[in-house]
Design goal:
alpha/beta; 2 domains; 15% strand; elongated; two-stranded antiparallel ribbon; 310 residues; disordered N terminus; DNA polymerase, domain 1; seven-stranded mixed sheet; Rossmann fold; 42% helix
Amino acid sequence: MKSRYSGHDTKEVNGPIVEHIPVLAGTLIEQITLPPDGVMVDSTIGQGGHSYLFGTKLGPAGVLIGLDVDKEAIQRAQLKLKELSCRVILIHSNFSHISEQIHKQGIEKVDFILADLGVSSVQLSDVEKGLSFLEDMPLDMRIDKRIKRTAADIINNTDEKTLADLIYKFGQDRASRRIARFIVQHRKTEPIKTTSQLAKIVCKAFGRQKRTRIHPATRTFQALRIAVNNELENLERLLASASELLKKGACIAVVSYHSLEDGLVKSNFKQNEKGGIYRTITKKPIVPSRDEIAKNRRARSAKLRIAQKL
């Protein structure tokens, strides 16, 4: 799976300690100023790392709203943020429903929207989520367990052409047709049920090649995760809602981890700038420094874009 990470040092609610470091946190704090009575929406609360840093800038009149599709992440964030003096509201919801959820709280406009689109280290290490091929896990990939279709459902029931198109569209893998062919051939003899099974099949499809920077199965896993969780459609809905929720002078900041996400953010900001709705703060995306990448290698593909409501 292509690198997409965010977060802070944390402890699983029911599991081992997993290090999880917030990406571009210092840069975000430098770029965004919140009034003490401001309203911040962290649309991907995760482990609460970014929210904690911004929450310390809010006073008792301030409000911090956190959304996440991962119910366990909400529980972990609650522990992290419990000492903040501001009001904290945590909601188990996809950020595609951001407008509905904010309005339910009696709030019409907000001072800051943050979206860190990364999959956390805690989620990657969670066997039940089945996101990683670094160890054998059930082939699931649902961040939100309310979703019905798993990655195994897609792999075992999708026709070869559609499967190849999916891997190419969401994984940007030029070997998509060969990978799909190997998957279909394998599932004729036995269903593909685990992440290690799928990773081995993809490696066989590539054959003997020179060692590359990423694992051969990375793009296939990315494609499946995007498809299972409807990630790009949900991001489009978030971006479409943000401009109506932001106060004049308020900002939206998005940290993306691959070109498909970054392309959607760039296009939305550009379109809103042309329409006189936004001013793009970051003409080029901000990326982590060499020092940050050295300390947190998982941050290497992160890109931060910020826009301000006019």
